[in-house]
Write a structure and sequence with these properties.
Blueprint: H1 7-13, H2 39-47, H3 62-75, E1 79-83, H4 86-95, E2 103-107, H5 112-124, E3 128-132, H6 137-143, E4 148-154, H7 166-175, E5 179-183, H8 188-191, E6 201-205, E7 219-223, H9 225-239, H10 245-256, H11 258-276, E8 282-286, H12 296-302, E9 309-314, H13 317-327, E10 332-333, E11 343-345, H14 357-363, E12 369-373, H15 379-391
Parallel strand pairs: 2-3, 2-4, 4-5, 5-6, 10-11
Antiparallel strand pairs: 1-7, 6-7, 8-9, 9-12, 11-12
């Protein structure tokens, strides 16, 4: 039967497992192990794990399973595995499929820790990684080879907000027999069309919009049942990157309001981008929802909304950026995003500081660039705070 339910309905109801007590809010099963009625039942469960059976929390847990099923349903995937953090999800999605001698093609515009996994860890284990400018299809075409195992990219890059033509990259990868793995945090599960456009595996840091309130680390890998259970699960259950039941419960509560929060934050982000574009203190406002964005048309085609994050490039470089950050009163200086509170970050000296100046320049992460994750505050208050801070430069 075709599931015709809408997003907000799925976010409230999918995956629910009620105990014998009939609770309304999902139960937290804070247990690391499970008991069996007999030795024969224990043997049977280890031989063949049933649909709603569990062995050990590192392998699965009822609360975690509710979260996995709800998020997979939202993304349009068959299955998912929840992890201890977003980086655990990225690492597992790559390590579970690769062996020495394999080849990966990746966009160079990545979060610093993702770059570390690809540049340092994968190469240490004999995996060859080729980096490309993700917005240049000719570079993808040249780099993908018959022995390419996977391509990896952020659908919207952090923090310069480049938008990659996912459909075209996926076609190139699939023609070569390669898997397409995408970090989809900035697109969010609300605006994502990643699976429809050709992604085989979708990775999230659930720490961001899904938790949405600065409470807990988490991650998720979503894909086909065959990939999740036959390829990813053996790697994760033996290496231990599982999500805790309490985190899964908080994330379930976060999913219930995800659509409402993301849409409200996106509307404010669009307003801020339009309001401050052309400001004398700014060299550029970067937001996929602006017609001036280099990939505005691609963003409009492959996402159903433009996201909650914009970047401001201060004309006066790092000195101006620091003055701006220090003058903000409502917006908080931190390095998270997707939170109910608006957060501002200076990537060149924090999240991307390990990169060389040449690398940062190549990625568009100049000394004046600040990343603004828009929260749930009133847009008039945010405009006033940002205006005052720009005036203090």
């Amino acid at each position: 039967m075709t599931d015709t339910r809408k997003t907000r309905t799925k976010l409230v109801h999918d995956g629910i497992r009620r105990s014998q007590y009939g609770e309304v809010s999902e139960a937290i099963f804070l247990t690391q192990g499970f008991v069996y009625d007999s030795a024969e039942q224990a043997q049977q469960r280890f031989d063949t794990l049933g649909e709603d059976e569990f062995i050990y929390a590192r392998y699965g847990n009822p609360t975690v399973r509710m979260f996995e099923e709800r998020l997979a349903s939202l993304e349009g995937c068959e299955d998912g595995f929840a992890t201890a953090s977003g980086m655990a999800a990225v690492n597992a999605s790559l390590m579970a499929i690769c062996k020495a001698g394999d080849h990966i093609v990746s966009s160079r515009a990545l979060f610093g820790s993702c770059l570390y996994i690809l540049e340092e860890i994968m190469s240490r284990f004999g995996v060859e990684v080729t980096f490309v400018d993700g917005t240049d299809l000719d570079q993808w075409r040249e780099a993908i080879r018959p022995d390419t195992r996977a391509v990896f990219l952020e659908t919207v890059s952090n923090p310069a907000l480049d938008v990659i033509d996912l459909k075209s990259v996926a076609e190139l990868a699939h023609d070569a027999g390669a898997m397409v793995i995408v970090d989809n945090v900035f697109a969010t599960p609300i605006y994502s069309r990643a699976v429809e456009l050709g992604a085989d595996v979708v990775v999230y840091s659930t720490t961001k919009h899904i938790d949405g309130q600065g409470r807990a680390l988490g991650g998720a890998v979503l894909g086909t049942t065959a990939f999740i259970r036959k390829t990813l699960e053996p790697y994760l259950k033996h290496t231990g990157g599982a999500m805790s039941p309490f985190t899964a419960w908080m994330h379930l509560k976060g999913l219930e309001t995800l659509d409402l929060r993301v849409r409200a934050m996106t509307a404010t982000a669009q307003t801020l981008a339009e309001h401050f574009e052309g400001h004398a203190a700014l060299a550029k406002v970067i937001y996929p929802g602006l017609p001036s964005h280099a990939q505005h048309a691609i963003a409009a085609e492959q996402m159903t909304g433009f996201g909650t994050v914009l970047s401001l490039d201060l004309a006066g470089g790092q000195e101006a950026a620091f003055r701006f950050l220090n003058a903000l009163e409502l917006v908080t200086i931190s390095n998270n995003l997707g939170d109910a509170k608006s957060i501002v970050t200076h990537p060149a000296t924090t999240t991307h500081s390990r990169l060389s100046e040449e690398q940062r320049d190549h990625l568009g992460i100049g000394p004046g660039l600040v990343r603004l994750s828009v929260g749930l505050e009133d847009e008039a208050d945010l405009i006033a705070d940002i205006s005052n801070a720009l005036g203090a430069i």
